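Protocol step 4 of 6: structure prediction from sequence.
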Amino acid sequence: MYHRIHLYRGNGPMSKRTNVSPQTFSTQMHWLADHGYSAVTLDAMVKILHGDEVGPAKPMVITFDDGYRSQLEQAVPVLRQLHQAAVFYSITGHIPHPDFMHRNELRALSDEGMQIEAHTVHHDDLRTISKQQQIKELTESKAAIEAITGKPVLHFAYPDGGFTHSISARVGSLGYVTATTINSGFATPQSNLLELPRIWMMERTDMGKTFGN
């Protein structure tokens, strides 16, 4: 899981967690490729986890939260070079903002095989808003992205990783197949598809320790 891909010199705890420099991102992607990891779409990963599809020896899903422009400018060229797919969870209410990817850019990424998926309209922690507001955030963001890409939106990322079992069940009832959290770990066939763990990638992530040699 990535957020901003740019060099940031702030010392706050969140800046260290949400910023990875372009050079480090490239190094991490090349490390994964050199060690046999292959990126697949979330659609493919669901089939692999269910045993309905034989995937590569080391399948992975590369995800980006929020839809920052730096992901397009700094991460996408590396992904293209390595022929790796990725998932971009877009906050639809932020699309007009200059720091975020716009509609035509999201559509172009979708057309080249990247997945554009939902991350709500306003990035509110779903645990802090009413059931009616949750439904509004989940349905409106889904519809907005489907209008942009012309493809079904089946995947969701919880803002700030905030969910409960009742919220994840609600997400599934609204047409989502998967939902990703910020809980650390690797997905397995036993994982709840609506509460999938991820690895939070940071500037100082130890690749060997995290992924093995």
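Step 5 (inspection) to follow. Residues 126 and 134 are 6 Å apart (CA to CA).
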